[in-house]
Specification:
The complex is a heterodimer of chains A (117) and B (113). Chain A has 117 residues and is mainly beta. Chain A has strands at residues 3-5, 10-14, 19-21, 24-26, 32-39, 46-52, 60-61, 64-69, 74-79, 88-96, 105-107, 111-116. With 113 residues, chain B is an all-beta fold. Classes of the chains: A mainly beta (117), B mainly beta (113). The interface between A and B is medium-sized, with 22 and 23 residues.
């Protein structure tokens, strides 16, 4: 079974600074997808960034980037120029690439990020 | 464009009462549909998924059931709620085909008292 571990229950950062959220996962699969989701107080799940395991290049979406280390099974999220609106719970998630089970997301327990003014 | 509707937003139910949560998707056909539950302080756990009308797969044994009576409708039910059924329930959908993106509804906060 796939497991996703987020070792930081809470993180805080000052506005405009950079913060990195950690995530490790365990799988025997070779092809899979990794995601970071953001859940603000509204509790809406919002996709922040995704990474395909067969791509070596780290994904980037504006101020959000990942450091994907496949051999180490590590997938950290870096938020640059943090904004107050980034305050949310962040979930790391894993999805395997097999057709019958595609769409099954395995989530970590989340990291609560607070951005201070 | 595609949208997903989930209701109600909040629900307070007594132990032993029935449950029905509904989710509908618009703007697409033959989507894969999912029910997730988020317990306090935890990530999301997949409860059920469906690849077509009447086709339901259960991930974990529990007090809940799911049904898909129409292509874009997914219902989560229980005949008798337990205290442990409390949580935040999210419906999600994925386009048919090799697309790994999952889109979530706005969720239902269920409190069983």
């Amino acid at each position: 079974a796939q497991t996703v571990t987020q070792s930081q229950p809470e993180m805080s950062v000052q506005e405009a600074e950079t913060v990195t959220l950690s995530c490790t996962y365990d799988t025997s699969e070779n092809n899979y997808y990794l995601f970071w989701y953001k859940q603000p107080p509204s509790r809406q799940m919002i996709l922040v960034i995704r990474q395909e395991a067969y791509k070596q290049q780290n994904a980037t979406e504006n101020r959000f980037s990942v450091n994907f280390q496949k051999a180490a099974k590590s997938f950290s999220l870096k938020i640059s120029d943090s904004q107050l609106g980034d305050t949310a719970m962040y979930f790391c998630a894993f999805m395997n690439d097999r057709g019958s089970t595609l769409g099954r997301l395995y989530f970590g327990r989340g990291t609560q990020l607070t951005v201070w003014p | 464009s595609q949208t997903i509707h989930q209701w109600p937003a909040t629900l307070v139910q007594p132990v032993g009462s029935p449950l029905s949560l509904e989710c509908t998707v618009e703007g697409t056909s033959n989507p894969n549909l999912y029910w997730y539950r988020q317990a306090a302080g935890r990530g999301l756990q997949l409860l059920f998924y469906s690849v077509g009308i009447g086709q339901i797969s259960s991930e974990v044994p529990q007090n809940l059931s799911a049904s898909r009576p129409q292509d874009r409708q997914f219902i989560l039910s229980s005949k008798k709620l337990l205290l442990s059924d409390s949580g935040f329930y999210l419906c999600a959908w994925r386009p048919r085909g090799a697309n790994e993106k999952l889109f979530f509804g706005s969720g239902t906060q269920l409190s069983v008292l």
